[in-house]
Request: fold
Amino acid sequence: MKFKVPKKPENLRERIICITFGTLIGIIVYIVFLYLHIEVFGWNFGLVFGPLLAGYAETMLARKMINTDTGAISAFIIFAITTFYSFILVNPTFGPNFLTLGISTIILQAAFPTLINYILLVILIGAVFYILRFVKNVITNIYIKIKRIVYKYILKKPFVEEKPRIIGSYDELGNNQLINSLNFIFITSTDVPDKQIINLGQFQSTVILEKEPELLDLNLKERETHKLRILKTGKDECLIELTNKIKAAGGNGVINLDIQYNLIGLGGDSYQISAMGMGVYIK
Reply:
């Protein structure tokens, strides 16, 4: 049985030089901050700038020498050195705190930006929203149970549970028949072969539809279904309004038709649907 000998990492010598250079820069920065007493309430800013500048110097040198990153290893080395010196050797009673955690996060983000951003923005924020939704559901269920007891034993009348209201259904077939009966031509391109057109100018129509707050109580599938109904309704209303404007100007069609969907308002509480294009008269 033969054992494979691990391959020597590429550019090992250059990598060690870059890490050493970054570490020296970090130590110098930290010493300068200590000497100049650049601090707030006894907390020295060198604890942040030392590791950050160490990692930056290492990365810049590595890109020039070997055209790649080395992982900002010197930032971790400086962080370990400064943490040991500041929190353990000099002031052992200070102990772990949020500042140390914050600095660790900054250094990790500098070394592994994609991974750390995914953890912070996707996993942590997603977990927070999941917990808030769970707490909301628990409180809602408790409230409903208490309300049922009050209605049954105190008010002596039946309790009718309110369910989320969904905006009226969307009649896709009926709307399509209505649009087809407008005697109007919709073209998404600017090419109208074998036709003579008269340009009437640019036209636009916009419809704004608000979301309903109670939609938050619906499940994901119900919310998506309702959202689709809103967007289809807004699209059809925009096309009808755009048709009326162009017809009023003497046209019978639109070319280069473009429909856009946007969220507007505080927290995106409304949908804005816009239809725009060049009004024409097609002979």
User: Anything to note?
Assistant: Strands lie at 39-40, 43-44, 185-186, 197-210, 253-264, 270-282.
